[in-house]
User: Fold these one by one.
Assistant:
Number 1:
Amino acid sequence: MRPEDAEGAKPAIAVAGLAAGRGRMPAFRDVTFTVPPASLTVLVGPNGAGKTTLFEALLGLLRPQAGSVRILGRAPREARRYVGLVPQSARLAHEHQLAGREFVAAAFRARRLGLPLARRETALAVGEALAAVEAQDLADRRLGTLSGGQRRRLLFAQALVNRPEILLMDEPLAELDPAAQRTVVGLAARLRDRFGLTIVFSTHDVNPLIGIAERVLYLAGGRGVIGPIEEVVTGEVLTKLYGVPMEVFEARGRRFVVQDDAVMAAAPEEVAAAR
Amino acid sequence: MNWPDFLALGFMRNAFATGTAVAIAGSLVGYFVVLRRQTFTAHALGNIGFAGAAGAQLVGFSPLGGLVVTTLAAAVWLTFVGARLSERDLGVGMLLMLALGLGVLFLNIYSANANAALGILFGSVLGIGERQMWVAIGVSVLVVVLLAILFRPLRIVTINEDFARAHGVPVELVTLAFMLTLALSIAVAVPVIGALLTFAIFVGPPAAAQAWTRRVGTGLALSVVLAVVQVWLGLLASYYVDYPATTWIAGLSFAVYLASRIGRPMGAAA
C-alpha cells in the first residue's frame, strides 16, 4: 500500500515534536512523522543521529524529553505486544548449538513466568513465523552453522512469533553481502504485502530499498525529515538537514550523497569520521 | 527394610540421596550456565564459597551456612559489578583471587581444621550427615522450582538479550534471580563434589548434552540423566573400590565430555 492510499487510515505510528536521548542532550529534537499501516519506512542517518534512540522511544524503553509517541493509538508501553523488534544480529553468540526452532520458540510469550506447557500452541506459532520468512528448512539446523543471511531470517521469525503488527528492524543489512541484502529487503517487502505488517527498517544505505520502501525518515544534525526517497535524499533537503552543503548524484537508479567531493553511499558517516 | 548391599550403611544412603538431589538441581542450572557461557563464574562461586565455609568455621558458625551466605553475596556482586561480557572473566577472577586469599588466611589461623578444608575443596560425600542431607534436598527442590518459574524469561535473556530487553523482559532482574539460584545450588553441591570440582556436575553433563541434542527440553533431560548416572556410578565405584567418590565422579564426567567431543555429529562444531 502506498502512503497516499493510506490517507485517512489510522496511523500505525504517530510521533509529534519528539525529542529523545540517553544523556541530557537529546539525540534529536522536534521530530514529527506518521507511519501508515502496512507500509515500509526506511530510517537512515549517520552514526549517532539517533536511529537506535528512536527505536527505544517507539518501544517505550526511553521516556521522550519532549513530544509524544503513539503506537496504534496507544502509549508505547501499552502497545508492546503489537511491536516486534529485530535486533542487530552482531550481538548474538555465534556458537549457539540450539536448533533454529528453539531460537524462535524462546521468544514466544517470553515475559510470562513458568514452564512453556502449551506445546501445540508454541509449535503452531513457531511454524507460522518460520513459514512467513521461508525458513522452515532452518528449523532443525544448529544456530552456529548458519550464514549471516540465514541468521537474519531466524531473527525475523523470532520477532514475528508473537504475531506483531509493527516490526522494527535494526540494521538488518549490516554485514551482509549484496545478494543476502536483496533477499532480506525482499523478505521485508513480502511481510508488508502479504501480512500487512508496518515496517520501520534502519540502514546505512537507502539504495537497496529504492523502489521498495514508500518513505524514508532521514535523521541528521539533531533533526529528521520524512518523505518519499526521491524527495528527501536530495541536495537541497540534506543541505538543510546537515547545515553544510550536500549534493546527491544519481546513477543507474542509485543515489550517492556527496559532501566536499567525498562520495558516500547515501549515508555520510565515513566522511564525518575521516574529518 | 532390605537395602541392597551398598545401601546397608546410613552414610551411603545419605550420600546417594544428597548426591542425587545435587546432581538433578546442579545439572539443570548448569544447562543454562553452559548456554550463557558462565562456566568460570560457576567454578569461582564454589571456591568463593570455600572461603566462606572456612571463615564460618573460624568464628564457630556452620560451614554450610557460611557457604550459602558467601556464594549468595558473591552472586549479587558478580551480577552488578563487572557484568559486561567483555570484562566478565576479569571481574570473576579478581573476586575469586580475593576470596582464596582470605580462605588461606582462615586456614592459617585455625589450622586444626585442615581436614575439614580438604573436605570442602575436594568434597566429602560419604561424610554427609542426615541434617545436611535434608538441607541439600530442600535447597535442590527450591532450585528446581525457581528454575521452572524463571524458565521462559531466562531462556530468552540467554538466547537473545537485546530482543528480551526490547520486549520488556526485566533483564537485570532475571539475571540476578538466576545468579542467586546458581549460588544456592553451588553451595549445596560443594560438600558433595568439592569446591574445586563443580565442573563435574554443573558443566560436564550439560556441555555433553548440548553437543548431542539441539533441543532445549531434550538437552535438560539428558543433562540430568548424565549427572545422576555419574554420581551413582561414582558412589558405587567408591564403595567397591576404595578411592574417593570425587575421583570417580570427576573421571566419569571427563569420559562423558570426551565421548561428546568424539561422537559429535558433523557440522555441529563451532
Note: The domain at 8-260 of chain B is CATH 1.10.3470.10 (ABC transporter involved in vitamin B12 uptake, BtuC).
Number 2:
Amino acid sequence: MKAYLSIVRMRFIALLQYRTAAVAGVFTQFFFGFVMVMVIRQFFFSGDAQGAMSLAQAVTYIWLGQAMLGMMPWNGDNEVIAMIRDGNVAYELCRPLNIYTHWYCRLLALRTAPTLLRSLPIFLIAGLLPAGYNLQPPPSPAAFAAWLAAVAGALLLGCALSNIISISTLWTVAGEGMLRMLPALVIFFSGSLVPLPLFPQWAQAIVNFLPFAGLVDIPNQFFVGTLAPAVLPLMLLRQLAWTAVFVLIGAGLLRLATKRVVIQGG
Amino acid sequence: MAQIQVRDLVKTFKVARRKAGLFSALRGVFHRDYYTVRALDGISFDIGPGELVGYIGPNGAGKSTTIKVMSGILVPDSGSCRVMGLTPWQSRAQHVANLGVVFGQRTQLWWDVPVIDSFELLRDIYNVPHADYRRTLDDLNDCLSLGPLLEVPVRQLSLGQRIRCELAASLLHQPPVLFLDEPTIGLDAVSKLAVRQFIRHQNTFSGTTVILTTHDMDDIQALCSRVMLIANGSILFDGNVDKLKQSYVTEKRLKVEFLHPPHMTPLSDKVTIIENQGNRLELGFATGQLSVPQLVNQLAAMGEIKDIIVEEPPIEEVIAQVYEELGL
C-alpha cells in the first residue's frame, strides 16, 4: 500500500515541475474556451437551445470543461507507453508490485497534478469575465460539494479508461488504433465539445447511458445546477459501475499481455 | 541445493517476415509469413549461492532471453526454472523481491527527478525498513562514490554515472541474486574498472550471486570464476575460464628480440612467422605439437637473444575463434 502511495506522491511531485507546460496549457485552454463560448452564444441567440440549460449555465459548463481538461482520459500514460515501446517495461515487470495498480497510481497523479496547476488560473480569470461570458459560481454549497464528489468519481473513471489505452499498446497495432479512436469518442460523448444537455432529445438516452458522461458532464451539471445534489448517489454509482467495468477489462488485458509479452531487442 | 536451477528451457519466437516493396506490404495485410526462431533450445544449468557467472555468446544467442525468463518477464514454452525455490513466471511478485536487475541498455531510474527520489521510491516498493535502507545506501555510496550524483536529475548524468546509480538501485533491497545484462556496455575504461571492482566487492562481501552477460571478455577475465557460453539457444561450454582456454586455445605466440638481426634458418613447419622485423620476430605455434624449450633452442641458434615473451592469444580472439568454428 505504501509503495503505491509513494508512486502517486512521487509522480505528483515530478509533474508539478512542468510549469511551462502548465502556462502553455492555460493559454491554449483560454483560446479554445473563448471560441466555444462565442459559438455557444450564437447558438443560443439563434433560439434553438431553449429549455435544457440557460446561456449562463452553458458558458459556465464550457469554462469548467476547459479548466478540468487535464483530467480527460484522451490518452494513456505517455511514459508507460514509451516504456512499452522502448522495452524499459522490462523493469516494471521486475518489481514486486501489481502492474495494473502501479500504472493506475501513476495515472492518478498524471490526471491531478497538471489539472491542479492549470485549473486554478482558469477558474480565477474566467470568473472575472463580464456577465454572459463568465464562469458563474455553483448555486449552493451543496452543489459545490456534489461537484467535488463527482470530480473524484470522474478521476477514478478516467484513470481506468486511460489505463486501458496504455495497456493496449502492449499490442503494437491494436494499441495504435485505440490511441486514435478513443480520444474522438471521449471528447464528443463526454460533453467537452458540446454540453450534453444541448444534444437532441433522441440522443439523450444514449449519451447518458454511455460511460463518457461520467467524465465531464456529470460533474459539470452538478456545478451549474442542472443536476440536483440529491441525485449524487445515483450518479456516483454510475461512474463507479463503469469504472469497475473498465478496471476489469484493463486488468484482464494486462494479464493476457504478460503471458505473451516480448521485450524486443537486446 | 542449487540456488538457481534451470532444466530444459525452451523458448521460441515467431518472427514476421516480409519482402521489401509496396506489393509485399499490401499482401502482408491479408497474409503474413512467419518463421520460428528457437531462442532457447533446451538449456540446463545449476548455479550455487555466491557464484559469479559470466554468460557469453554472440548477438542473438539467447543470453537476454535466458535472463528474461529467469527474471519472470518471459514465459518459456517448456522446461523449468527455480530461483530460490520459486518459479519466476508463476510467483512473479514474490520472486522479483529476491532479485536485483540491471539492463545496461535501459534505465530503471525516473528520468526527470533526482536519483535519490528514485531510490526512496524503490525503498518503498521493496518495503525496505528505513534503518536497513540507510545502511545499504551508505555502503553503496562508499563503494560507488555516488555522493554528489544523488541530487542530480537522472537525465543530466553521464552514462558512467548513470550505470553506477543503476547498480546501486538494483541492490537497495539487498537481493541475494543479481542479474546484470551488459552492465559495461558503452562505458569508458575508468568506468568499466569501477563497475568491475564494485561487482567483485558485492560478490565477495555480500555473497550476492551474480549472473553477468557481456560482450566484453575483459569483464569475464577480471570477474568470473565460471563462464557459460551459449550459441543458437544451446549451452556449448560451462566451466572456468582456464578450461575454456584449454579447450579452445590451440596456438600460442612467442615474441623474441635479438641483439642483432638473426640469421634466418628454416624453422619447424609447425611454426608460423607472424612478423619478422629487424631484431624482432613474432611466431605462432600449435601448443600440442611443439614445446617452448624446443623452439627456444632453435631460435638460440639464429643469434644472441635479448628477450623472449610467450603469450596466449587474448580471450577475445579465443571466443572469436570458437564462434568461427561453430559457424556463427
Note: Chain B has a mean pLDDT of 86.
Number 3:
Amino acid sequence: MGRVSVTPPPPVGPDHDPWIGLEPTVSRRYVTVVVAALSTILLTIVAFLMPVPYATLEPGPVFNTLGEFNGEPMLTVEGDVQTYPTDGALDFTTVSVTGPDGRLSFTEALWAWFDPDVKLVPMDFLYPDGETAEESDARSAAQLASSKDSSTVAALRALDYEVPEQVSVADVAEDGASADVLEAGDVILSVDGTAVSTPQQAIDVVSTVSPGDPVTLVIDREGAQQELSITTRPAEEDPEVPRIGVSLASTFDLPVQIDNNVGDSVGGPSAGTMFALAIYDLLTPGSLTGGQRVAGTGEITPDGEVGPIGGVRQKMAGANADDAEVFLVPAGNCAEAADGDDFGMTIVKITTLDDAISSLEKLAADPDAKVPTCS
Amino acid sequence: MSDLPPTTDGVLELHPDSPLRRAALEVEQHVAEAGWDQPPRLFALVRTAELVAKQPELAAQVGDGADGSFTPIEQEGVPAEDFEDALTRLAWPDEVHGCAAVIERVMLPQDAAEDLPEDPEAAAAALAEHPERQEVRLVAAVLREGGSHSAVRRRGGTGEPSGDSDLLEGPELVPGLVALLDQTLAAEA
C-alpha cells in the first residue's frame, strides 16, 4: 500500500511546532456532532475478528460431594469406621475457563463482557508467564490433590480426631544449600534443637540465624535418625533472609482414610471446603444439610481455615442452575459475591470449617435461621 | 474446568496503574462527558513535563508532570468518515510521545455479523434494525516507546460516565485500533 506519511491531519503550524494548534483537552469545550449514520456503523469486520489476549470464566458444572463422580461414590470412608446416611447435597462448584491456547475475537470478548454471568479477564491473569496448557493442568491437578489431603485432615480435626503432622522435604534445589545433604522424603524432626511438626515451624527456626550460619537438623530418613549440618545461604530476593534450599510439605498420619475419586476433568484447590463438609457429614449422625441443596466453594487448610478463590460469581450462577438453596462463600470473596444477583440463594459467609458447619446446622434446623451472610 | 487465582482486591491487581492507563482513562472520561453519537476523536499524548517546560503557563491546568503523566491534546479536523483509512496516512512529529483515538461502533455478535449482507448500505440498514446491536465507544492509547491501553464503554448501561460496570479496560483489547495507532507513531513525520 502506497502510504504517505504526513504530520497530524490538522495543520501543525508553519514552523512545524507541534504545540501550535494543539490544546490540552482540559481546557477545551466540545460540540457534539451527530454523525451520518452510515459512517458510524460500518463495521471494520477484519479488525474485530483479530484475537484478543483475553479469556472468559463461565459458570461450570457442579458436583455433589455426597453423590457420585464418574459413576462411583465421590467420597468413601475406608476401614471399619461408622458412617451415617446423608441427605440433600453439598455441591462443589466450578468455572469453565478459556484454555491458554484459546483465542477470543474482540466481538466474542465484548459479548462475554455483556453477559453478567461471564467474566472477561486478561489471559495472563489466568496463565501467568505464558503458562502452557500442560503446565496449567499439572498445577491444577497438584492443587486438587493437595485439597483432598487438606480437606480430610480439616474434617477429622473438626471431629476431634488427633491427626499427627510432620514436616518433610518435598524437593531439594539443585545447587542449593541442601544439595547432596537432604533428600526428598526426609522427615525433619528438629531444627537447632527445636522440635518442629509443621513447615512454618521449621521456617521460623531457620529464619532466626544469619545467612551463612549453619543450622543443625535432625531428620528421619527411611526410619533412621541422622543429625545434619546445613550452611544457610542468603535468599535471592532478600539477602537478609537465610535459606536452606528446600521446599517443605506436611505429612499427616491419618487415623481414618478417605478415598476421594475426583479427578481428570476437574482441578484446582477450591473444592476443599466442600470435600471437608461432606467428610464431616458422612462421619456424623444426622444430615448436615437438613435435606437442602447446599453449594459452595473455598480452599481449605488442614487447620480448617477457609481461603478465597476465583470466579465466585460464575460459581454462584452454576449453583443456581442446579437449584441450590444455600451458597457458601469464603469471607474474602464476600464483596464480589454480594455484587450482583443472589439468585434467591442464602449467601453464607464462611471463614473456617467450624463456622461453616455451625451455619449449616442452624439452616438445617430452620432455613430462615440467622447466619453470617455476605449481604 | 479449573481454578483461578483469587480476584479479591489486593490479591491480584487486574490493571496495574501506569501513566498511559491514566491518559487512556482521562481521554475516555473526557469524551464520555460529551455523550454519544460523536465523530471519531484523536489525541496526541505528550509528556506533561516536556509540555510544561515549553509552555509554563499550562502548568496550572495540566500539573507539572513529575508523576510521568501524559497530557492528551485533541487534534482538530479529524475526518469523520474513513477514520481508520486516515490513520494509515498519519504520522506524528517527534515531540509527540503517543496517541489515543476514540471511535464509536455498532457491534453485533460474531455469528450475526457474519450474516450481514455484503452491500454496505444494506448492511448498515440491517445493522440499524438488528435486535442484538450494541453500541460501544472504543478507546485505544499507545506509546511510541511501546505499550498500549484500551477501554470499551457500552452505551445504554447505567448512563453514568463514571459507571465502571459499563467500562471495560485492559491492554490489547482493541488490537486493530492499537495496530493502526502504532503505525502512526512508527511513520516518519
Note: The longest helix of chain A spans residues 133-158.
Number 4:
Amino acid sequence: MEIIAKLAILADAAKYDASCASSGAPKRSSRNKAGIGSTNGAGICHSYTPDGRCVSLLKILLTNFCLYDCQYCVSRRSNDVPRARFTPAEVVRLTLDFYQRNYVSGLFLSSGIIRSADYTMEQLVEVARLLREEHQFRGYIHLKTIPDADPQLIAAAGRYADRLSVNIELPSNSALQRLAPEKSIAGIQAAMGVIRDGRKAVQEQPARGRAKAPRFAPSGQSTQLIVGAEPSSDKVILTRAQHLYQNFGLRRVYYSAFTPIPKSPPLVPLQAPPLLREHRLYQADFLMRGYGFQAEELLHSSEEDLPLDIDPKLGWALRHREQFPVDINRASQQMIARVPGIGLRSAQRIVALRQVRAVRLEDLRRLRCALEKARPFIITRDYRPRQDSASVVLRQRLSLSAQQLSLWG
Amino acid sequence: MGLANMYVLDCQDDFEQWREQARIALQRSLLPGEVCWQAEAAPDLFGAQSAVLAPLPEPAPALLVPARAVDMLALAARFRAPGRWDFLYKVLWRLNAGERQAIMAGDPDGAILQKRIKAVRREMHHLHAFLRFRKSTVAELDWVAWHEPAHDILDLASSHFAERLGQQRWVIATPQDGVFYDGEALHYARPCPEPWRAVAKGVRDDESLWATYYRHIFNPARLNREAMQGHMPRRFWAQLEEGRLIPELISEAQRGSRRSGQRESVASLPGKQIPARLVRKP
C-alpha cells in the first residue's frame, strides 16, 4: 500500500482523540546545529479544520489493526474497517517532511494493540527513538502509552517524548466492563502512576544535576474521557477528572463528545455528538484547574449533570447569592475572578487599575468583561445592582435561548 | 491650532528614529497636538518639508518613562495604522506627565495600546503558524515561503525559523520586506530584494500528502465553521493548500448524508475484521 493511502486510513482513525497540544515543552533549538526542530513552551496551531479544531501535530496511528473490542472505537477488532500499518521509517519520513514545511510542530503517535501491549509500546518507542537519535529531531513528540505495557518501556517512552498520555475513555469500571472489556481503571491508573513517578524522580534531582539529568515527559501527561457514549453523568466524569488531577498530576483531561462511528454497535448511541455538553465540561474543568473550584462546588448536590443553558460559573454564583454583590474595588483578585463574566486576566487587570484609581463600570466594559452577566453580581464606584433580583429570574435572563441551544446541534 | 504651529516630522516608519525625535519633542515640552509624524505612504501631506527638531543644549530635562513602557511602545509601533506615531507620542507624553494608567487596558489610550500590542503579537504568531515552506527550485536554498503579514513583524518574528530548521537555508518574502537564512546567519532587508521575491513566489510544489492528512483528520460530524474562521482568518487561505479544500469539506459535511466521523473515501474501502482467536488475555 502506498504511503498516501495509509495516511488516509491512519489519520481518519486518529481523529477521535481530542488532544493536539504542542505546548509546555522545554526550550530546545536547532540553530546552527545538525538536525531540525525547536520548542519554546508555547504551542502553535498550524491550521484549523472546518470542525474548528487546531492542527498542531501530525496525529496518526501507527496501525489500526487492533485486538481489543472497545465498542466506542472505530478500530475495534469486530468492526469491518479498512486496515493499514505504517513502518516506523514511514512515520519518521512524514513527520520530518510535515515539520519542515511548517504544517505541524511535531508528532502525536498512537496505535491499535497488535500482538501484545509490550510489542505495541516497543514500536511506538522505536519511532520516537529514530526521530530523536537518528535524525536529531527536537520538535514536539506526544506518545500514547499502552496500559499494561512493561514499565521499562513506558520509562523509555518518557525519555524521548514531551508528553505521554493514557486514555481512560470512560469514567468508571462498570462502564469500561460493559464497553471496553479488555481495559480496567486499575490497569490504566497503573500506567499513569508509572508516568507520575518517572516525572517525580527527575523533579527530585538536586537543582544542579537536573539540567543534565535525562528528562521525563517534561510536558506532562494527559488523558481523554469520552462523553455521551454511555450514561455516566457529568458528576461522575468531573469527579473522576478531579481524582486524576490530584492523584496523578495530570496536565490536562480532554473531553471528547462521542461521535457516531460507522457500523455502530448497538451498545453505543447514534446521535450527533453532544458538543454543548462537552463545552460545559471544558468550562468546568478550567474552573477546577485555573480558579480553584472543587468538582463538588460546580454541581448542585441534587444535580447529576451541568446545566446546558448557563455556564458553570454562573450556575455556581446563582446558588451562592449570599457571597454577592462583590465590590470590585475591595474584593480579593480570586473573588473577582469568581464573578460570572469576569475572567482570570480581567481580574488581574482590575486589581492593577484600582491601585491607580477607582474602577467604574465603563472600565469593565473596556476590559471586555461580559457586563450583562457580571452586573447583578458586582459593585463599582458608580454602580450597584438596582434590586436583588431572584435567582430564578436572573437565570432566565442570562440563559442561552432555545435558538442558541439549537446551534450546538 | 493652525498647521503653522505644528512640527511635521518623518521617522521613515522606524521606531528608533521616532524615539529620538520624540525624546527631543518631550524635552522641548511639545504637546501631542503640536507635533505629528507623516506617513511613509503620504509624504508632504501638508505641503510642508518635514521639520528637524534640534536637541536642547545639555543638561536636558530628565524624562520619566520606564523602560518597560518603551518596550510596549516599540511593540505597538509595529501595528500598521494611520497616525500610529502621533498616537505613540500622546501615550509617551502622558507617561512623562506621570499618568501611569496611559498604558493600562482600563484607560482609553491604554486600551488602544494594549489592543495594538495584542494584534502585533497575534500577527507574529500567525507567521509562525500559517507560513508554509515549499521546496526551493534554486540550488542555493532548501526552502522558500511567501507570506503577507498585516503588521511589521518579520524582522522580529523570523528567527523562530532558524531555531526550527537548523542549518537549512531559506527565504521568506513579503510585500514589504524579506529575510534570508544562509545556514548560519539571518539577513533582513526592507524592501524585499527582487530575487528573493521571485524565488518565493515562483514555486509550485506537491502538497498531496498534506491535503490527504487535512481531509482525513477533519471530523465532519463536528462541523463548526465559525470556530475555524475565528482562528484562521480568511486572508491567509490563499497561501494555504488547505484553503482550497475548506469549501468542499464544508459542503460535504453539510450535505450530511453521512452522520459519522469517518470520511466516505475510507468507508468505501474493503474492511477487515480481526478474528477474536488472536486475542490473548494479558
Note: Chain A has a mean pLDDT of 93.
